[in-house]
Automatic annotation (TrEMBL), chain A:
Keywords, comma-separated and alphabetical: Signal
The name this protein goes by in its record: ABC transporter substrate-binding protein
Signal peptide residue numbers: 1-23
Originating organism: Nocardioides currus
Pfam families in the cross-refs: SBP_bac_1
InterPro entries reported for this sequence: Bact_solute-bd_prot1, SBP
């Protein structure tokens, strides 16, 4: 009996100890050692993965005694792990921020380091693109890739239907109807994931609202300007022309050959509106790894007649390197190194994204991506995806309601109401 | 959560407190109150020591998460930073007035009712058929049980592919048979999506019902069959009047499992539709995931999870009280 008691007590003690060990063990990665930097990124395929390993090794060589622990993860895994890291407050030293309301919330919670003074030269060099990563005029992350959304199309399909990329939404509807008559499904849409559908509304809002209205709405979270309802009406009319693939309400964005991107990559539809990552996604969805190959075409979201927005303004977003609040100072050095001309050029040469440093943009080798950079840099402004800009809470409510409109169950006014309600509840 | 509570019965101690009025000066020889009491304490200690690890694990993995969900539900919290914005019951108000959530509750209840109304007769029927000796019985039994063994996500992905509009196998078969499949596909049409999900769930879980019922049928004594046959009962009469009633405890247990599973339904919905289209297949669990991890409204997700918990516990308790009690009483 006594022996049993003692054994049980010992077991309990061990259990308790292993628990405290598990709970307290995470701290080693942050702050415990000023010469070790942890860095999470999502380039887990070649050539990106190998390139970043080389970058880390170069940085270690230039800074003797400093060690960089690189963790490459699939994007979704990284997002999940980051969410857990934010909850526990135990963040990697260098990580990715998408900007907007999400970043503002992290800054508000004191999790992200202010880089305004420590990286002044790089911020200056990047220029206007940092705007999405600023909170109250302070810069908290350095964007290393910034892309724009547009319509990717199959040039062969357009040729065989005898249509040209449209410049107004009315023309676009005509193009779609001509494609339909030629027996080609005009557009694919991954509305099952909601955000691809929401991009239509975002882009329409960029065309119906002036830049001032949009900037003010992001700052005040006040959506009373009638241009937001107008945007919904543009999209609603567009949906009524039924240009999308069958079953678009349940179609995923980019998983598998039957996803929206897969349908374009395999020639089942003529076009799809998507971000700058589309060629890379399509390559992964075809057996030959080519995607649409040299049949890939791109045009921007067409102008809305009578809209107050600039027809050359773009919708987009990107990724930026941020440093967590408790990270050692060398982490800031790593981030500034990541935004150096050398690293940005290498990033561009490997087609890992659209570099933000003007001195590196000419290094992009893919002709389609090079064109996209031109569009981005010639745009008077690049509006950050609204769900990112407004933050997850408003963004989620907005995307849900937009998806409802695509299912014919919400009106343009409902979308604005849902956004305003979510904003008001956020307080 | 729903396990029947078996109170630990401690043997009553000998009444060694003397009746008032006859207080002996010293313990009478032959009675041993002190040692007896010590043994009892030791027994108690023993129980405590043996139960403690289990209790500690339950506290850590059940009680603590439940308590922290309740706490979370009283705050407005983004999932990081300090939890200091106390909002009282406002999250509950928002959850209960949110049409998406009330729809989700309805969807859960629809699945609960449909599962029992459709899978039960189907399962009992097939089990009765498979209980007869026939050629290839083992093969049929295996085939029916295969879907249950498949991982839920894998089954979901397979059915998602089968149900793709136009190019999917199901649409192909239907058009081949001259039926026009829905334009948006079964999973993309709000009016059909929940039925499609239920269809897949039935395919997936019918095997378990049949397996349980077959096991239950083994306990129906052969003599009963013989006696009934001697009395001139037909096969149908035997099944309906004798076998099915004897299968009662198994059926009631299966109903309970099915009900709890339907209330917690998440994986299949998430894989097939993500709760869409137009929230047509949202369940309570998918609602709290989309509010919590996707929108960072952890307070609302906490409130939704507490509501789900309360509904689950209430239904489980009522079921125990009014349906399962008979069975447990028989056992005792």
């Amino acid at each position: 009996m006594r022996m049993q008691t003692r054994g049980a007590a010992l077991a309990l003690l061990c259990m308790g100890m292993s628990l405290t060990a598990a709970c307290g063990g995470g701290d080693e990665s942050a702050g415990a050692d000023d010469n070790t930097i942890t860095w999470w990124h999502n380039s887990n395929n070649e050539p990106g993965k190998g390139y970043y390993e080389k970058v880390a090794a170069d940085f270690e060589k230039a800074n003797p005694g400093v060690q960089v622990e690189v963790t490459a993860m699939a994007h979704e895994d990284m997002v999940d792990k980051l969410a857990a890291a934010f909850q526990s407050g135990d963040l990697p030293d260098v990580y990715m921020e998408r900007g907007g309301g999400e970043l503002a919330a992290h800054v508000d919670a004191g999790l992200t380091r202010d880089l305004t003074d420590d990286a002044a030269a790089e911020i200056e060099a990047i220029g206007g693109s940092v705007a999405g990563w600023q909170v109250d005029d302070r810069t908290y992350a350095l964007p290393f890739s910034l892309g724009v959304v547009g319509v990717w199309y199959n040039t062969e399909d357009f040729k065989s239907a005898g249509v040209e990329p449209p410049t107004t939404v009315a023309e676009w509807e005509q193009v779609n109807s001509d494609l339909e008559s030629a027996g080609i499904t005009p557009l694919s849409l991954g509305a099952g994931d909601k955000w691809p559908a929401a991009h239509y509304w975002y882009y329409a809002a960029v065309r119906t609202c002036s830049q001032d209205v949009l900037t003010q709405a992001v700052a005040d979270l006040d959506f009373s300007d009638p241009c937001f309802v107008e945007a919904g009406e543009v999209v609603e009319d567009f949906i009524r022309t039924e240009p999308f693939n069958k079953g678009f309400l349940a179609t995923p964005a980019q998983e598998g050959a039957t996803s929206a991107s897969g349908l374009l990559a395999t020639g089942k539809v003529a076009s799809e509106m998507q971000g700058h990552w589309e060629p890379g996604v399509m390559q992964g969805l075809t057996d030959d790894g080519q995607g649409l190959g040299d049949k890939t075409g791109w045009f921007p979201f067409p102008a809305v007649e009578g809209g107050a927005g600039d027809p050359t303004a773009a919708l987009g977003g990107g990724d930026a390197w941020a440093v967590s609040q408790d990270a050692p100072d060398t982490a800031v050095d790593l981030v500034t190194y990541l935004l150096s001309e050398d690293v940005q050029r290498g990033f561009a040469e490997n087609d890992m994204g659209l570099p933000t440093l003007p001195a590196a943009t000419d290094a992009v080798s893919d002709p389609v991506l090079a064109d996209l950079i031109k569009v981005r840099d010639e745009a008077p402004f690049v509006q950050l995806y609204f769900d990112t800009a407004f933050g997850e809470s408003i963004g989620g409510a907005m995307n849900d309601e937009i998806a409802l409109m695509f299912a014919g169950e919400a009106s343009p006014q409902d979308i604005v109401d849902a956004m305003q309600q979510a904003a008001d509840e956020q307080g | 959560m729903s396990l029947p509570v078996h109170p630990i019965v401690v043997p009553p101690e000998d009444v060694d407190d003397p009746a008032p009025g006859e207080r002996p000066a010293a313990p009478a020889p032959g009675r041993r109150p002190r040692p007896r009491r010590a043994t009892s304490w030791r027994e108690r200690l023993e129980i405590v020591v043996f139960v403690l690890p289990a209790l500690a694990l339950m506290a850590l993995f059940i009680a603590w998460p439940v308590a922290s969900a309740v706490r979370m539900s009283l705050y407005r919290w983004r999932g990081f930073g300090p939890m200091d914005d106390f909002v009282g019951l406002r999250n509950y108000e928002r959850v209960l007035t949110d049409e998406v959530f009330t729809q989700a509750v309805v969807h859960n209840l629809v699945i609960v009712v449909l599962s029992i109304a459709i899978q039960l007769p189907l399962g009992v029927g097939i089990a009765l058929l498979l209980n007869r000796s026939m050629r290839g019985r083992g093969l049929v039994r295996t085939l029916i049980f295969v879907p249950y063994v498949l991982a839920e996500v894998i089954a979901g992905v397979i059915w998602f592919q089968l149900l793709i509009p136009d190019t999917g196998v199901v649409d192909g078969l239907l058009s081949g048979a001259g039926v026009t499949p829905p334009d948006q596909g079964f999973l993309g049409t709000p009016g059909l999506a929940l039925w499609a999900v239920f269809g897949v769930l039935t395919w997936k879980y019918l095997g378990l019902a049949i397996l349980l019922f077959l096991a239950g049928l083994q306990s129906v004594p052969e003599e009963v069959h013989e006696a009934a046959q001697l009395d001139g009962a037909s096969w149908w009469q035997i099944q309906w009047r004798i076998v099915v009633p004897l299968l009662g405890p198994t059926i009631r247990t299966w109903c309970f499992l099915s009900m709890i599973g339907s209330l917690q339904l998440f994986d299949m919905v998430w894989v097939l539709t993500g709760g869409g289209p137009a929230n047509a297949t949202t369940t309570m669990a998918s609602y709290l995931i989309s509010q919590g991890t996707q929108r960072s409204n952890y307070g609302i997700a906490g409130a939704a999870s507490v509501v789900l918990f309360v509904i689950g516990v209430a239904m489980a308790a009522l079921y125990q009280r009014f349906v399962l009690r008979r069975d447990t009483q028989v056992e005792r």
